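Build the 3D complex.
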Amino acid sequence: MTEQISIGKYATLLTLTNKETAKQLMPQCEQMQIIVGKIGTMSLNKIISSVETAARREGIISESHYRETHALYHAILEAVNGITRGELSIGEIMRTVGLKFAVVRGCPYEDQEEGEWIAVSLYGTIGAPIKGKEHETIGLGINHI
Amino acid sequence: MTEQISIGKYATLLTLTNKETAKQLMPQCEQMQIIVGKIGTMSLNKIISSVETAARREGIISESHYRETHALYHAILEAVNGITRGELSIGEIMRTVGLKFAVVRGCPYEDQEEGEWIAVSLYGTIGAPIKGKEHETIGLGINHI
Amino acid sequence: MTEQISIGKYATLLTLTNKETAKQLMPQCEQMQIIVGKIGTMSLNKIISSVETAARREGIISESHYRETHALYHAILEAVNGITRGELSIGEIMRTVGLKFAVVRGCPYEDQEEGEWIAVSLYGTIGAPIKGKEHETIGLGINHI
Amino acid sequence: MTEQISIGKYATLLTLTNKETAKQLMPQCEQMQIIVGKIGTMSLNKIISSVETAARREGIISESHYRETHALYHAILEAVNGITRGELSIGEIMRTVGLKFAVVRGCPYEDQEEGEWIAVSLYGTIGAPIKGKEHETIGLGINHI
Amino acid sequence: MTEQISIGKYATLLTLTNKETAKQLMPQCEQMQIIVGKIGTMSLNKIISSVETAARREGIISESHYRETHALYHAILEAVNGITRGELSIGEIMRTVGLKFAVVRGCPYEDQEEGEWIAVSLYGTIGAPIKGKEHETIGLGINHI
Amino acid sequence: MTEQISIGKYATLLTLTNKETAKQLMPQCEQMQIIVGKIGTMSLNKIISSVETAARREGIISESHYRETHALYHAILEAVNGITRGELSIGEIMRTVGLKFAVVRGCPYEDQEEGEWIAVSLYGTIGAPIKGKEHETIGLGINHI
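Done.
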């Protein structure tokens, strides 16, 4: 039977709290590769390119292989669907976001043949483009890599 | 200026960890009303009715007023959109979910005239209807009540 | 230049008010073929089949030609999208509807070569499956036939 | 039991006909606050900002409270979903709209504890960006405020 | 009973292979009107306008009648939904496409009263805006005209 | 630079024509693993389970690894989105499908480190649940495995 390390929970704790708290709550994840960052925008493509660029620059995915870009891209898109809750759109429908992001890469299943997976967490605020007229939002995407 | 208590983060920590950890990480939320529960299903309407029933039974929303049911309903639906990431469907597309849910009700804004808001968090697994063939998923919905 | 008779407005007035009021407000539509009916359900396919069956039985579309069924089907689907506002689902997400429907068929454009078009209006309530816990909803679909 | 004044019907009659006709057909709505306006655009955010700006300027929602902006925003988005029928997009998919809008605020339920609700109606034409190559479209959104 | 010539298959073979191969595989389609073309873009509206412009210029649809524009538009939109697989968006979510398109117009049903129909095929690549980081994609839309 | 063998085109030719024609048109794909089959249904989950079961039984994916099930599942879902063109629903909106399916697994990129990918093609008819009242539909999904 396959047993699972919760890389999605770990990614989410990294955006909700901070590296220290997340690692303390989930010591089993210390082998995982992680990155965290921030992005504020009215364009979905800025969210995608910010996470992709950070992931490539910090070596969480290979720059040269499409396979890894493809895996990360779909994980980001799933996380963005959580953020936008039903309509894959922000600026076009007058919303702006301020987000913290985290990417976690590692082997979550006990059976090592399940290989590596990637988790993308987005957490922050969404709302009108006026300070304070916003509420929280969260998204998580997971894919095999 | 309006300052915000993160009820969405609190709701999410309640599903990711437990009441003790969530309260310890966010002592500013101790005034908030909360419920937590669990649901495993292949039908979206079971997710919705489980959260609604728990919320009514434990008095987090009024049984008699449509206004409160309406606010909770849309918060649940937004959380479900995060869980399903783009397609509002589970059993119909051969997916099953095992979820922990939390509902938080309280006043997140410093300006008391912003009134009460409600946050619904869903966290667990989604996947094929075979044990182990699943990965994590998360959703958060927030609404004024 | 093409000038337009508002068959969508006419169909909507038929569901919002009644035949007498609609005809009085839009005397220019007296040549149009119309049907009106009612449907209460938790299944989208019941909405579709109720409108299609009524339209065939009262001769607003031909029973034998797929072409006309195809045109009506897509007009109904567009109206249903207005009713459900973003998620093409009712019972699966715990909603029930009580609707009045109207179908209008005729030539809305001054240029007769634009031929016949069809308008489908749906108006009524959507909400929790509990009397009173519901609000209004409307949808309109238009297609060439 | 809760009895309902049809604020959605009233909002729709305001966009389909005019203030005089709408008031005559629904005298029970005379206490409701209303605004009407027009917008022609290829951008969804122009529809949203036009309705929001008019609503704030004419005092139908409070300028300072996010709560009211949030309620109106989601009502507009639901109405826009009716207009676009399935794809929340206009200019990006080569469509342009010419719309009349109406916002109605008031207490539709007999039980006064249900409080105030808001209805947003959009009615007009959608089509290719060429005069005459267009047909009608309608949308309605309703929310508690 | 209505028998069918597969205009969708013919349109798809025109984009997958070439006119000679397609005609050889489907000699029954030789009466059909066809056009083929190419488009590379990050904007959905460029796909739509390229196909519409080619179809008008080569006389596959009438320039003056909205009816035919309306039929073609919805066929294109359905094909685009196949290309984008769930989210009607390309550049906004950091995707670029390189597509071959084909439009076929003719009478696919044995019963001549079913009249003319139109098929739109799109085939090519979708992916990151970097050469090689892309995979294939296909879409087909069919409508009565 | 990565060069590509068109596994999506190959999968599509397998559903549009037959194994002999597909292989003759694309001799470069002879190393690829393939399966073909048929399904007629009003339920999306029957499409998914038919393709998954055939793929496992004929050894195109591993029965024991979730990783491969996950890759195939998302490829099927993308193909289904092409079939349903915008609404991930069939029976619920009164549509029935008769489909041929093909799955292709192999290394499409020249750079062998890009590894194996999977393509799922669906082609057939969609329409009212009445013989003849239907038209063609196509879908293609591609994923790394």
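Chain F is about 35% helix and 30% strand.
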